[in-house]
């Protein structure tokens, strides 16, 4: 259900923006059903305890973002936007997970640097804090639409050529194979929803207030040798993350 009220008049954030953010989250959560019919201005004014002008400004912001549209005689509706389903399981692979849902897929290396391992990442990769890591920032597009922005960390001493291989092959899976790693599995995945930051909005072509689903993941070789720590932001209005059984071997 839509939040009842919940507007913070002392936050310094414009009331229409707060309402737009709450409506956007409701859209992402599928609160308006298959038909996507939204409540009218009067109903929203009562729900958020604001005047209709404020509600109208919030709806105009969502129209500008392309999330909703006003249809003469039918009210305000959520626009039908194609969503991609991406399964997360023990053998998560981007291209294989989206198989049959796209015609073209591209991966761009946005940044490649060497950084010292933080305590958190060092623990996940079973390295000493400060150990040199290869940091790769990627943007993955499907049919020209940016779906995810990921920051990936690898042991620079073992996998320092991952950047070159991803550029050459267009895939982390194929890059691993080129470096002699034929298989890998997902050890863990943590998922949270949050507002996209300024950099993510630029890379994913999102509007202010857009929501991303952040997945923090660790990949290992099948015999348990750590390979990769990744933080991936998925555009929440474009991707549905389907959680499988990540700790079970496929049948």
Automatic annotation (TrEMBL):
InterPro entries: Bact_HTH_transcr_reg, Chorismate_lyase_/UTRA_dom_sf, CP_lyase_PhnF, Tscrpt_reg_HTH_GntR, UTRA, WH-like_DNA-bd_sf, WH_DNA-bd_sf. Residues 13-81 form the HTH gntR-type domain. SUPFAM superfamilies: Chorismate lyase-like, Winged helix' DNA-binding domain. CDD domains: WHTH_GntR. Keywords: DNA-binding, Transcription, Transcription regulation. PANTHER family: MANNOSYL-D-GLYCERATE TRANSPORT/METABOLISM SYSTEM REPRESSOR MNGR-RELATED, MANNOSYL-D-GLYCERATE TRANSPORT_METABOLISM SYSTEM REPRESSOR MNGR-RELATED. This is Phosphonate metabolism transcriptional regulator PhnF. It comes from Xaviernesmea rhizosphaerae. The lineage of its organism: Bacteria, Pseudomonadati, Pseudomonadota, Alphaproteobacteria, Hyphomicrobiales.
């Amino acid at each position: 259900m839509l939040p009842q009220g919940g507007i913070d008049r002392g936050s310094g954030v414009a009331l229409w923006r707060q309402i737009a953010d709450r409506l956007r989250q409701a859209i992402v959560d599928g609160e308006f059903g298959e038909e996507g019919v939204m409540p009218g201005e009067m109903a929203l004014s009562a729900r958020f305890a604001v005047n209709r002008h404020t509600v109208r400004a919030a709806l105009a912001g969502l129209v500008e973002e392309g999330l909703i549209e006003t249809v003469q005689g039918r009210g305000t509706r959520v626009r039908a936007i194609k969503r991609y389903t991406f399964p997360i399981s023990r053998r998560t692979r981007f291209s294989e997970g989206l198989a049959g849902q796209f015609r073209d897929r591209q991966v761009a290396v946005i940044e490649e640097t060497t950084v010292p391992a933080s305590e958190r990442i060092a623990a996940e990769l079973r390295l000493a804090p400060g150990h040199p890591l290869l940091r790769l920032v990627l943007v993955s597009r499907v049919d020209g639409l940016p779906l995810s922005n990921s920051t990936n960390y690898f042991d620079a001493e073992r996998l320092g050529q991952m950047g070159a291989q991803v550029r050459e092959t267009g895939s982390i899976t194929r890059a691993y194979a080129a470096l002699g790693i034929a298989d890998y599995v997902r050890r863990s995945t943590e998922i949270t929803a949050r507002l996209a930051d300024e950099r993510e909005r630029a890379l994913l072509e999102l509007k202010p207030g857009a929501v991303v689903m952040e997945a923090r993941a660790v990949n290992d070789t099948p015999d348990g040798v750590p390979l990769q720590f990744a933080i991936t932001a998925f555009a929440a209005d474009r991707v549905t993350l389907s959680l499988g059984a990540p700790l079970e071997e496929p049948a």
